[in-house]
Amino acid sequence: MSVEVNKAKKEDNTLTATLNMIKQAIELSDLSNDVYEHLKTPMRFVEVAIPVEMDDGAIKVFTGYRSQHNNVFGPYKGGIRYHPAVTTDSIKALSMWMTLKCSLVGVPFGGAKGAIACDPLTMSMKEKEKMTRSYVRVLGSILGPETDIPAPDVATDAQVMAWIADEYSNIMRVPSFGVVTGKPLAVGGCVGRTEATGRGVFFITREAAQATGMPLDQARIAIQGFGNVGGNAALLFAESGSPVVAVSDVSGGIYNPKGLNIYDIVNHVEKTGFVKGFSGGEDITNDELLAIDCDVLIPAALENQIKSNNAGNVKAKIVIEGANGPTTPEADHILKDNDILVVPDILANSGGVTVSYFEWVQNNYGFRWDLATVNRRLEEKMTEAFKLVYSFYCEKCIGSDMRTGAYRYSIQRLAEAMQYRGWLRSSTKK
Ligand code: NAD
Question: Is 323 a pocket residue for ligand 1 (Cβ < 6 Å)?
Answer without folding.
Answer: yes
